[in-house]
Specification:
This protein is of the alpha/beta class. The protein has a single domain, classed as Aminopeptidase, CATH 3.40.630. The protein contains 5 helices and 4 strands, in the order H-H-H-E-E-H-E-E-H. The protein has helices spanning 13-18, 22-41, 99-124, 164-173, 222-238; strands spanning 127-135, 153-156, 179-181, 201-209. It has a 4-stranded mixed β-sheet with strand order 1-4-2-3. Helix 2 crosses helix 5 and helix 4 (164-173) packs antiparallel against helix 5 (222-238). It starts with 12 loop residues before the first helix and ends with a helix.
């Protein structure tokens, strides 16, 4: 079992250029709290398996640096060209993500992600990725499926990399929440070197609606944090 390689969401030049609002900072802090608490509460690894490293919260780019990324239509690929409200982020006519930012931001991230997954795969022969995110109560303009359900927890799946047993396990783990599959966000992260190649690299995305653990004033709801962490721990321990 592995999570995603840790990376500070504010560390990339592209993110620094855009700045980070207090709400985003609070969201990152709470997300880090959730992701960092889960490993502390994990039970022992099942007999015959190696201990399962689970990495911390991160701000990650979209899954693909090219036209395979569904968020391309709203300017959110490896390097964003539009803001969450749909406003241009870059100079008019500069539609293609700059190669320099791909090289300095996406390529190192993708290499780190692939390295940690390959290391676990070589050691265990299988990997389960839990791809943790959050989303606001009200759909934002960039959401291409903004008219979809806004459940308390979205379970993002991939036809190749999310088997029925993994989806059922996640559904049971978050039974205390209202859940939906691939709504309002769909898919889950897999390193490109394994994507649609190695079925024993399994992955599921967990998108938590932020009002489950944040108040409207962006204060942490401890009971909500505890419930989300409990769901993550149940999911990971069952894998």
């Amino acid at each position: 079992m592995t999570g995603l390689p840790p990376r500070d969401a504010s560390s990339s030049p592209d993110r620094q250029a855009r700045g980070c609002c207090p709400a985003a900072i609070r969201q990152q802090t709470t997300g880090h709290t959730i992701a960092s608490r889960a490993p502390e509460l994990l039970g022992p690894a099942p007999r015959g398996r190696e201990a399962r490293p689970v990495c911390g919260y991160q701000g990650l780019p979209e899954r693909f640096p090219d036209g395979r990324e569904s968020m391309l239509k709203v300017g959110m690929v490896a390097v964003y060209t539009q803001t969450h409200s749909g406003q241009p982020l870059r100079d008019k006519g500069d539609d293609a993500p700059p190669d320099s930012l791909i090289e300095s931001c996406f390529t190192p991230y993708a290499a780190s992600f692939e390295h940690v997954i390959r290391e676990r795969f070589d050691a265990c022969g299988r990997v389960v990725i839990v791809d943790l995110h959050s989303f606001p109560r009200m759909a934002l303009p960039y959401e291409i499926h903004g008219d979809a359900a806004q459940p308390e927890v979205c379970l993002g799946v991939d036809d190749f990399h999310t088997g029925a047993p993994l989806l059922a396990t996640a559904d049971r783990a978050f039974a205390g929440f209202e859940t939906a599959v691939n709504a309002p966000f769909l898919g889950t992260s897999v390193p490109l070197a394994f994507y649609e190649i190695e079925p024993t690299v399994q992955s599921i995305m967990i998108e938590v609606r932020r009002d489950q653990y944040l108040t409207p004033r962006l204060e942490t709801k401890q009971a909500g944090v505890d419930a989300v962490v409990a769901g993550l721990v149940a999911l990971i321990n069952a894998c």
